[in-house]
């Protein structure tokens, strides 16, 4: 986060007490006074159904926690079957809105159950059972939550790979997890055109020979290559498959059995497979969803993220469905066919809770409030934000233009690793401050410490750490326990290192200040500098590369790459385009540098380490225009001068 934003946060004085409409909120006065263990014990017993009740709340042997020990449950049963059994089969689980206008579907809990059972039985036919690892590479189609829940039903851990990731990224995740089955689709709709996914999956599978079977969901009519013996159309494979839940029981899973892996970028080139388990995760996400978004029977909830990220797992699929809520699921982009598409959706379904990211809010801000004004947004009662620090200006715009000047905005802080929201205001309790994520949730014990691990005085910035375990906490990094220790537990032994800077004010409210490590946050997507660097040096023309982030008004941060070409050659505009494309192919378009600065040398210390701070300083001056190229021989001053000149 840039210094300008931090200054804006420090001087923010606006305050918004809980509105009277939230007098009967799920979390009211006294909420924070509850005993954490009693709270999580009660939520564990009441919020989910267990086949065998748990006997022990938690076991904490730092840095490993276990929750709800001895309990047996099934996440799919909790998200689907129990609602049907309780008579809510006719309630809409989600209103699916396809990208092509008019392409929509209301899926009730009873429909969802039939779809999930059919999917699970189809998976069984191709050998998926308890412990079979499954990769899912789908866009925002109804089959995405269905496939996840079908895996959960069978006890098959899944990993969902965001549709924007490249074949290489997909293959490395499949290989790391040892997936035997891949679920994908022919193509997904992207601004009116089909964007092929299956060819990307094919390329990935050439480097992931462990995949025995590939199930392909048909979404468009594009020609799709199929490999005999390996690939199956889902609609064909499932055609005569039983969808009666009575014949497809939910596998009783141990509370600590893995539910899924979610890969996320760390400070090395290799993404980490974050392990989430069944019991603690489900209780954690359903509980926080209930209180933070003040969920009622009548709530129409829309989290406008992609299910391919942790936000979608926790707060589109598992949390809301466990709570039996009616949600919206949207396939497309906010500006197709026009920039009012989101507001059309809010009006059509009467959305009461909207949860999105600051980068999306800033994009709508740039387009102007007139698109929102075309629609009746009066159904909205609560707004949420996640993914990066929200600047007060965007916060206030969101409340004013989307929330009708009345809806509280909850800025929720959490991570892939935390699984659930850890710091957030509660709409019936908290006095909101634009730019602050409010207070830790019950049982969450963060601290802000200095270089030596000592708590800083209130108001001062420092490293955010977490002390006590929470139910949805990661259970490690798949296949790499030493990396788990090194990444999170070695800097301040005994404390979980978050990787963000933070400050606590006199009221005990938290202000997140952005990443303090080599992780960048572009449009709420987490990307490591090293990952982009290794994609760049993988290009045969590149000798060396260093990557850092600069502040960007829309995307929060944007990626700047400093590149030395082999033979000290100058880079051309063509070279810029080629390298950006290369990064898109290695990682995905989300990791493409906004700027590439060519330099015959990178500034280094005497021991040969690249001086990233220096490069970051240059980038943060905010003077780099789009796709800057530089070719001057002398190093830092020259880069700086050129960067400034290119503004
Ligand atoms: O830097 C923080 C930022 O996003 C990081 C986690 O990214 P990821 O694992 O991809 O999960 C994103 C969705 C939960 C954090 O380390 N971040 C997330 N939410 C906020 C935030 N920064 C400030 N305020 C937030 N509300």
TrEMBL record:
Transmembrane segments: none annotated. It holds the Pfam family AMP-binding. InterPro entries: Ac_CoA_lig, ACAS_N, AMP-bd_C, AMP-bd_C_sf, AMP-dep_synth/lig_dom, ANL_N_sf. GO terms for biological process: acetyl-CoA biosynthetic process from acetate. It is an enzyme of class 6 (ligase). GO terms for cellular component: cytosol. GO terms for molecular function: acetate-CoA ligase activity; AMP binding; ATP binding. Its EC number is 6.2.1.1. Residues 531-609 form the AMP-binding enzyme C-terminal domain. The keyword Ligase applies. Residues 86-470 form the AMP-dependent synthetase/ligase domain. The keyword Metal-binding does not apply. Residues 34-79 form the Acetyl-coenzyme A synthetase N-terminal domain. SUPFAM superfamilies: Acetyl-CoA synthetase-like. Keywords: Acetylation, ATP-binding, Ligase, Nucleotide-binding. PANTHER family: ACETYL-COENZYME A SYNTHETASE, ACETYL-COENZYME A SYNTHETASE 1. Belongs to the ATP-dependent AMP-binding enzyme family. This is Acetate--CoA ligase. It comes from Asanoa ferruginea.
């Amino acid at each position: 986060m840039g210094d300008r934003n931090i200054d804006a946060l420090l001087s923010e004085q606006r305050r918004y007490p809980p509105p009277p409409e939230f007098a009967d909120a799920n979390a009211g006065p006294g909420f924070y006074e509850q005993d954490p263990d009693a709270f999580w014990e009660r939520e564990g017993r009441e919020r989910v159904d267990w086949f065998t009740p748990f006997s022990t709340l938690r076991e904490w042997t730092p840095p490993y926690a276990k929750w709800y020990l001895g309990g047996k449950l099934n996440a799919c049963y909790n998200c689907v079957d129990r609602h049907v059994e309780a008579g809510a089969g006719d309630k809409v689980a989600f209103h699916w809105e396809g990208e092509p206008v008019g392409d929509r579907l209301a899926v009730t809990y009873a429909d969802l159950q039939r779809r999930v059972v059919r999917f699970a039985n189809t998976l069984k036919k191709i050998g998926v059972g308890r412990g079979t690892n499954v990769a899912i590479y789908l866009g925002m189609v109804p089959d995405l939550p269905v496939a996840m829940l079908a895996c959960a039903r069978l006890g098959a851990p899944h990993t969902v790979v965001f549709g924007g990731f490249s074949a290489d990224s997909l293959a490395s995740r499949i290989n790391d997890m040892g997936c035997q089955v891949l679920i994908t689709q022919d193509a997904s709709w992207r601004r009116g055109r089909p964007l092929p996914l299956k060819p990307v999956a094919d390329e990935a599978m050439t480097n992931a020979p462990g995949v025995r079977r590939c199930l392909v969901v048909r979404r468009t009519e594009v020609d799709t290559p199929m490999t005999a013996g390996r690939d199956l159309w889902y609609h064909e494979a499932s055609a005569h498959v039983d969808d009666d839940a009575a014949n497809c029981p939910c596998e009783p899973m141990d509370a600590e059995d893995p539910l899924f892996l979610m890969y996320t970028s760390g400070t090395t080139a290799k993404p980490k497979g974050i392990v989430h388990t069944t019991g603690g995760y489900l209780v954690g996400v359903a509980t926080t969803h209930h209180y933070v978004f003040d969920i009622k029977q009548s709530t129409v909830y829309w989290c406008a993220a992609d299910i391919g990220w942790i936000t979608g797992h926790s707060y589109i699929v598992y949390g809301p469905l466990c709570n039996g809520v009616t949600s919206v699921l949207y396939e497309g982009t906010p500006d197709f066919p026009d920039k009012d598409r989101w507001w059309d959706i809010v009006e059509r379904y009467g959305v009461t809770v909207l949860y999105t990211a600051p980068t999306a809010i800033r994009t709508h801000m740039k387009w102007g409030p007139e698109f929102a004004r075309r629609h009746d947004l009066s159904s909205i009662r609560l707004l949420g934000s996640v993914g990066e620090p929200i600047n007060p200006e965007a916060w206030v715009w969101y409340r004013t233009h989307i929330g009708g000047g009345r809806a509280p905005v909850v800025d929720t802080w959490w991570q892939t690793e935390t699984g659930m929201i850890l710091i957030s205001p509660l709409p019936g309790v908290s006095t909101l401050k634009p730019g602050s994520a409010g207070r830790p949730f019950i049982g969450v014990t963060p601290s802000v410490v200095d270089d030596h691990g000592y708590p800083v005085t209130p108001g001062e910035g420092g490293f955010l750490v977490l002390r006590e375990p929470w139910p949805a906490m990661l259970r490690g990094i798949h296949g790499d326990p030493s990396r788990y220790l090194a990444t999170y537990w070695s800097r301040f032994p005994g404390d979980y290192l978050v990787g963000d800077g933070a400050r606590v004010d006199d009221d005990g409210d938290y202000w997140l200040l952005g990443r303090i490590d080599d992780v960048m946050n572009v449009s709420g997507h987490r990307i490591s500098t090293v990952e982009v660097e290794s994609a760049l040096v993988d290009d045969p023309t590149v000798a060396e590369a260093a990557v850092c982030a600069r502040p960007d008004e829309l995307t929060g941060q944007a990626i700047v790459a400093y590149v030395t070409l082999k033979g000290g050659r100058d880079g051309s505009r063509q070279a810029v385009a080629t390298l950006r494309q290369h990064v898109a192919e290695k990682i995905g378009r989300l990791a493409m540098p906004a700027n590439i600065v060519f330099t015959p040398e990178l500034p280094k210390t005497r021991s040969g380490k690249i001086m990233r701070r220096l490069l970051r300083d240059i980038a943060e001056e905010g003077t780099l225009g789009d796709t800057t190229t530089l070719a001057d021989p002398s190093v830092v001053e020259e880069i700086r001068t050129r960067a400034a000149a290119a503004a």
